[in-house]
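Q: I'm writing up a methods section and want to include an example of the input and output format. Could you take the sequence below and give the corresponding predicted structure tokens, formatted cleanly so I can copy it straight into the document?
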Amino acid sequence: MTGVSRDAPIGIQCLQRLSGWLCPRLHINRLRWYQATVLVLTYFTYMTYHLTRKPISVVKSVLHQNCSGLQPPPGVDPADDQWCNWAPFNTSDANTLLGALDSAFLFSYAGAMFVSGMVAERVDLRYFLSLGMLVSAIFCYLFGLGHTLGIHSISFYLLVQAGAGIAQTTGWPGTVATVGKWFGNSKKGLIFGLWNSHTSLGNILGTVLAAEFVERDWALSFVYPALGMGVVGAFVWLFLPSEPRHVGLAVAPRPESRPSRRLEDEEEPTQVIVGDQAASLRPNRHSANAPPGGGAGEEEAEAHEGTALLRRAGGGERGGAVSLSRALAIPGVVEFSLSLFFAKLVSYTFLYWLPLYINTSTSLTPKQSGELSTAFDVGGVAGAALAGLLADCAGCPALVCAAFYALSAPTLLAYQAWGASSYALNVALLVASGLLVNGPYALITTAVSADLGTHSSLAGDSLALATVTAIIDGTGSVGAAIGPMVAGVVSSCGSWSHVFYMLIACDFLALCLLLRVVRSELRKLRHERRLASPRLVRTE
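A: Here is the clean output for your methods example:
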């Protein structure tokens, strides 16, 4: 392993020296080795971001609960129906206050995301991620400290949640941009679908870890996830190569293989059958039929293998960070951003309220409710992989998202109607709901964001990855902030059935916002079928 520059993380430099001393004749595919390292490290990185987000949804069940079924300790007035609740959530409008905690986190997250993406483009992503993880871990720990120190001020918890939201914005732009820089323009649907299971795995581990301590000491439900995030953050700082050039490598952009990606001015090939022989009538650049401008300059451009496949207009090696307006002008960014607004609203309402809904709609304890809610995230893992695989096969991510949206609405209605009737049916419908709700959410925030961030209008590199990712995820995060807040108000004033009707309506709106892109993808599919069957002209 040679060629590691001084920009390489200190852990990689130490491993290089160690391998050179112990195994001087060791030869490996360095690119594949580093790509695997990046995938694993970024996977566990973002897993811990969700690991520290999830405890609040489990702890809600003990911050405010039904005290009538519990035995009050000596000296407590049995007539006080709020004796078991944690102040300041010991009021009749506790769901509204708990929703305000979610909103403090999510609105600060959504607002800071747009800035975070632009900052990520201008700094070393390894420092960006490791520092963000450290600060996020500190805020997670502070929330648990509120129980240890007996803090009952709503302002304290709101400030901690807002600070955590800002710190967590470092995760998504940093990890997606890092992976995008290492994998170029290769097909990323399935890769990102499997990689995006970190979100669901983080939710599952965060739920299980928080549920383990929620009935004993809910402070520990925050302390242990914070500790795990701090440890992974240290590994990121030591070993994450944020760009190939930092370890003396380069990832060349790959040319698009689909016929629909041809240049607009390229003529469709026509085959002429002369007797039993077929010949193509596509113009040759060296013939008299060649279009103007295809002379010596083009031959010179293909003179050697090291020439970049996609050139930048300025001919320079690296452009500056793109502006917000230029990123918004990329075709599809606005549509997918607005669709994600509603998709993330649905997903995050489940993320923050599902354990409490299960606890109130069934006879399960807070711990059992938290453990059952992980079935939704198990479905999310399968949904992310399935959506990515279908998008890779069809080459139509918007069409895949639309199909998932159309199926998720009746599934949510079925869960609301029959989910509480039996444990087995609850699990089955939760898995199906997680698959259909998280599938398009995962696809848009990963593979679609990466594809749009390396759009042909940007010369096909990772120039706009962080900004485009921040725009799409930031817009979705506004919906993620609104959903749990509205769910808290609606569940307090009305019933949980109204919350489900709201979520179903949001799925329908997410579908409608992608219709223009879906029509475009269907036209592309028809065009590709025509290209696959070239026109035949028989001459005798």
